[in-house]
Design brief:
The chain has 4 helices and 23 strands. The chain is an alpha+beta fold. Strands 1, 16, 17, 18, 21 and 22 form a 6-stranded mixed sheet that branches. It has a 6-stranded antiparallel beta barrel with strand order 2-11-14-13-12-15. The radius of gyration is 46 Å and the shape is elongated.
């Protein structure tokens, strides 16, 4: 009986020891450290140094080089309107006609006065010719000669005055036919047929030339200073002939068929806006551009020598400024401060901090830390940019 109890106790002890061993093995398995995480995956781009064309874009407003106000030069009634509003008119095309009858009467009266003055002058001249030889023969006195001479000069002046009145009447009559002085688009008529025109309401319409066309835009003092600093630092170089070409971009984003050039730079700043005016002249033979139209002007020809470009998403902002993640030769991550320049499409010019051959992280930089090892894959090449823009 005692031996049976001992066997039972021994079996219980063996079972308890086995349970303890199994529990200890389970705990040891649960407390084992997990395997290290895989290195973060990033895409990188290799820095290349190359001369890059720079295109600066500005918002501009078109303006007609010649905008002429068509006014009535004499007072009278407006008889007829001879043009269609909003259409292109030619030089010499009749736009308006005024009532001619009063001016024809004035011309007839001036011609009659001229004829009377001419007859008086002819008589005085003939009398002077008769008096001169008689004075030489002492048949008439010197006073008679002076009177005849004075009468001839007086009638001559009256004839010249009458002739001038005839010319004035002719001009006034010609002013009743109002023509376009240039080729351009005619605006709406300001006066209607039958209106009486005087000095207070003599504006009839305006005609604006279309070819060539101006595009005016402004540049601020800060922008100009930035451009000058870029040139002094050697980061911006103009064309060899110092002439930038100007491309006009319409409101729908399409490029205008004709390019232009800068024709005027205002030498003085506008004190209200702190900007100064730049004017581009562009050929407009089809008249597609119209006055007071908003367009974009792209100035082409400048180059950024030995430029370094990286995608915008590769540049991050920290407490100490801009930086990028760079992968060194050992595949480790380095935090590299950089000095950024202008935007270039979806890329950014780097003025300082990078050199040719550096591998810059484009995607995956948010989960990196300095000194990490990263799994690297090449990023897709960037698409060519259309214009450089300031941040």
């Amino acid at each position: 009986m005692i031996r049976r109890l001992d066997c039972t106790l021994q079996n219980s002890l063996r079972a308890a020891c086995l349970s303890v061993l199994l529990f200890a093995a389970g705990c040891e398995k649960q407390t084992a450290s997990p395997p290290p995480p895989p290195p973060p995956e990033v895409t990188v781009t290799k820095v290349e140094v190359r001369d890059t064309p720079v295109v600066n874009e500005f918002v501009a407003l078109t303006q007609s080089p010649q905008q002429v106000s068509i006014v009535a030069r004499v007072s009278g009634f407006l008889d007829k309107q001879r043009y269609t509003e909003g259409t292109v008119v030619k030089p010499g095309q009749i736009l308006f006609e005024m009532d001619k009858k009063p001016f024809i009467v004035q011309l007839d009266g001036a011609r009659a006065s001229q004829a009377s003055a001419r007859a008086a002058h002819d008589t005085a001249l003939a009398n002077l010719k008769r008096v001169k030889p008689l004075v030489e023969l002492n048949a008439l006195s010197q006073k008679d000669l002076d009177d005849a001479t004075g009468q001839e000069q007086t009638t001559k002046a009256s004839l010249e005055q009458a002739t001038a009145s005839v010319e004035t009447a002719k001009l006034n009559l010609s002013y009743t036919t109002i023509e376009s002085p240039l080729r351009g688009v005619a605006a709406a008529a300001q006066q209607k047929e039958g209106a009486y025109l005087s000095a207070q309401n003599n504006l009839l319409t305006t005609v604006s030339s279309l070819n060539p066309m101006w595009a005016n835009f402004s540049i601020s003092e800060n922008e100009l200073s930035d451009l000058r600093n870029e040139v002094r630092a050697g980061r911006l170089k103009g064309p060899q002939n110092k002439a930038l070409s100007a491309e006009i971009v319409l409101s729908d984003g399409t490029a205008f068929a004709h390019s232009g050039s800068i024709s005027f730079i205002d030498p003085a700043y506008n004190p209200q806006t702190g900007t100064f005016l730049i004017r581009v002249t562009v050929s407009n033979p089809e008249g597609e551009l119209r006055p007071n139209q908003y367009v974009k002007v792209r100035l082409k020809g400048a180059t950024r020598p030995n430029a370094i470009l990286v995608p915008q998403r590769a540049v991050q902002q920290g407490s100490k400024g801009h930086f990028v993640w760079v992968i060194d030769a050992d595949g480790r991550v380095e935090n590299r401060p950089v000095a950024v320049g202008d935007w270039y499409g979806d890329q950014w010019f780097i003025n300082d901090g990078l050199k040719a051959g550096d591998q810059v992280v484009v995607d995956g930089g948010l989960k990196l830390r300095a000194g990490d090892t990263a799994k690297v894959s090449a990023a897709a090449p960037a698409a060519p940019a259309a214009a450089a823009r300031k941040p």
